[in-house]
């Protein structure tokens, strides 16, 4: 039996410090998320990932690497991937040669995007990218915007499924976000607490539809730091009704549930009251999250990370949080099953070269 390791943390630099190694060895830490500050070159990233796995082989190395404006590694050979809206545009506005088969061209391009994205990351040792975005582009959200495939849940679902197939070809799992939908609200949950006043029926019929249609294809899901008051007074990531009753119960999802970043403004107020990072983590875990992310807190002395580890440890001993074997099994299932293709071999691989040609 493996002990439930629910924390995903970050590191400050381009190599592991002694403090980083100590934190990553803690049994409550299940992985880390990389950012652009952790990047210098492919060789450096590969060595960083190798050093992380030397600390613990089971650590899940994650990154937000979607394409477009959310792509952490962009130089030294990494392909500049298009925003996902480019795939929707390919579907909606085909060239003359693509008329009558635009959906087929768009889904083929989406699969190519997923394969290139996953294969390049895996060649450097990264296990998981938090992609695809399943939010709908309602035209209101600046933080989502061109990160969304389209405004139509059907188009989003088919393009996302195609992209996830490309990830699977590269040996990488996926993460649909931000459940049940962040695209309808204007406010940015990084800096505010967005509120979506629609009914549950309206949300399930529209924004949340991809989660139902893709239920058996999604390996993990990240809920939104958005409050839907007609469903629950708590944001989705802190709501048992959203995560257990609706996502797992009604929609049948069986994979990992990641919280979004607990340092975001949308995660620092629950039930109208400001909360500490530990209180937010406990609320997320007790609501049904398997993993909780705390980002950008290693800068400086990293006191917030240490406080969360200590706080969660004390909460466990006090019976305020119960580790779950099932959550740990789900986390471990996200780790790649087979070896990655080395970068130099990938560059001359026919499937990879063909995928590059299909990118919009």
Summarize the structure.
By secondary structure, the protein is α/β, with parallel strands linked by helices. The chain has helices spanning 18-25, 42-55, 85-92, 102-123, 153-169, 200-205, 209-213, 240-250, 277-287, 303-317, 325-333, 343-347, 350-358, and strands at 7-9, 29-34, 60-63, 65-67, 70-71, 128-129, 176-179, 220-223, 256-257, 269-270, 273-274, 292-293.
Label this structure with key terms.
360 residues, alpha/beta, 3-stranded parallel β-sheet, 39% helix
- The averaged pLDDT comes out at 95
Poorly predicted spans: none
Distance between the termini: 46 Å
| Percent in strands | 5-15%
Radius of gyration: 20 Å
Oligomeric assembly: single chain
- The ordered string of helix (H) and strand (E) elements is EHEHEEEHHEHEHHEHEEEHEHHHH
SS element count, helices: 13
Query: Biggest sheet: strands, sense, closure?
Result: 5 strands, parallel
Structural class: alpha/beta
* Amount of helix: 25-40%
Structure, explained:
The chain is 39% helix and 10% strand. It has 360 residues and is α/β, with parallel strands linked by helices. The protein has a 5-stranded parallel beta sheet. Strands 7-8-9 form a 3-stranded parallel beta sheet. Strands 4-5 form a two-stranded antiparallel ribbon. Strand 2, helix 2 (42-55) and strand 3 form a beta-alpha-beta unit. The model has no long low-confidence stretch (mean pLDDT 95).
């Amino acid at each position: 039996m493996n002990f439930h390791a629910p924390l995903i943390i970050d590191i400050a630099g381009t190599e592991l410090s002694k403090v980083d190694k100590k934190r990553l060895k803690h049994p409550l830490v299940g992985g880390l998320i990389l950012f652009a500050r952790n990047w210098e070159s492919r060789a450096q990233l590969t060595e960083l990932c190798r050093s992380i796995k030397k600390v613990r082989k089971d650590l899940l190395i994650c990154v937000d690497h979607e394409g477009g404006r959310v792509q952490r590694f962009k130089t030294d050979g990494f392909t500049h991937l298009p925003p996902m809206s480019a795939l929707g545009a390919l579907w909606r506005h085909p060239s003359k040669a693509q008329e009558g088969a635009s959906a087929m061209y768009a889904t083929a391009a989406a699969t190519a995007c997923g394969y290139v994205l996953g294969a390049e990351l895996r060649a450097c040792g990264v296990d998981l990218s938090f992609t695809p975005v399943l939010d709908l582009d309602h035209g209101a959200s600046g933080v989502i915007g061109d990160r969304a495939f389209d405004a139509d849940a059907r188009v989003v679902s088919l393009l996302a499924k195609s992209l996830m197939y490309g990830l699977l070809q590269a040996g990488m799992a996926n993460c649909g976000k931000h459940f049940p939908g962040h695209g309808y609200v204007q406010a940015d949950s990084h800096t505010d607490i967005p509120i979506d006043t629609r009914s549950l029926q309206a949300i399930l019929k529209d924004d949340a539809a991809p989660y139902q249609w893709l239920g058996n294809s999604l390996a993990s899901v990240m809920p939104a730091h958005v409050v839907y008051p007609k469903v629950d007074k708590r944001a989705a990531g802190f709501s048992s009704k959203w995560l257990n009753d609706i996502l797992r119960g009604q929609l049948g999802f069986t994979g990992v549930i990641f919280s979004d970043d607990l340092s975001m403004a949308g995660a620092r107020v629950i039930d109208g009251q400001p909360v500490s990072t530990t209180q937010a983590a406990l609320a997320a875990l007790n609501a049904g999250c398997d993993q909780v992310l705390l980002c950008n807190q290693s800068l400086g002395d990293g006191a917030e990370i240490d406080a969360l580890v200590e706080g969660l440890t004390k909460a466990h001993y006090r019976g305020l949080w119960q580790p779950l074997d099932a959550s740990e099994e789900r986390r471990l299932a996200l780790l790649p099953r087979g070896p990655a293709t080395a970068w130099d071999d990938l560059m001359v691989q026919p499937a990879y070269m063909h995928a590059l040609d299909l990118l919009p």
